[in-house]
Specification:
single chain, alpha+beta, nickel, UreE_C_dom, UreE, chaperone
Length: 160
């Protein structure tokens, strides 16, 4: 079994690389086992530096590269009659600090009947669906490939 121990940073694009599909729960872990679509088992013992995002790459010490994709999983999908209603639902879900995936026409969150009832109470439609889950990382999370100044550095830069 190959053990992947490195996270590859930067704009890695590899042709004909093996792909492993992982749920959001697994992509948050630094140690896990998984099975590739070809049936081969792999292990991961990665540095604890954050969540593996859809399209991330990991590697073995020998240089074998694997792309990580978000696996379709059971989620709650929120649809609204207007973008303002969808925005309102995002606000209320955000106040509960749940991982939330935003799209222009829908919101996705992990199954929770209490949250679903709250959203239905706001007049929106909620139903279960199978969909890859890539929730927002949050305003204070480290964003890869973002070369802009951080807000603190930007404030310092403006005032010096």
């Amino acid at each position: 079994m190959k053990i992947y121990t490195e996270r590859l940073e930067g704009n890695v694009v590899q042709e004909n690389v093996a792909v492993v599909e992982l749920t959001f729960d697994t992509r948050q872990k630094s140690r896990f086992r998984a099975t590739l679509s070809n049936g081969h088992d792999i292990g991961a013992d990665l540095p604890r530096t954050g969540i593996l995002r859809h399209g991330s790459y990991i590697a073995t010490q020998e240089g074998d590269v694997l792309r990580v994709d978000a696996k379709a999983e059971k989620l709650m999908k929120v649809e609204a009659p207007s973008s303002f209603d969808l925005l309102k639902a995002a606000y209320h879900l955000g106040n509960r600090h749940v991982p939330l995936m935003l799209t222009p026409t829908a919101l996705y969150f992990e199954p929770d009947h209490v949250l679903a009832e709250m959203i239905i109470g706001l007049g929106l439609t909620v139903y279960e669906t199978m969909h890859p889950f890539e929730p927002e990382s949050g305003a204070y999370a480290q964003h890869q490939h973002d070369h802009r100044l951080s807000p603190i550095k930007a404030l310092h830069h403006v005032h010096t």
